[in-house]
Design goal:
Number of strands: 0
Number of helices: 2
Number of domains: 1
Distance between the termini: 34 Å
Length: 43
């Protein structure tokens, strides 16, 4: 999480907003990664 907050700060994003949004962003990333892995396994 520290790296993500550092990236947010470097991009000029408020750290509190970034911390609030990170769980949602992480959930989407995990879902998409799982979809890609499933696609490679089946195809």
């Amino acid at each position: 999480m520290g790296a993500a907050l550092a990236l947010a700060q470097a991009l000029g994003v408020n750290a509190l907003i970034a911390a609030e949004l990170l769980p949602e962003i992480e959930a989407v990333m995990v879902r998409k990664l799982n979809e890609q892995m499933e696609g490679r396994r089946n195809g």
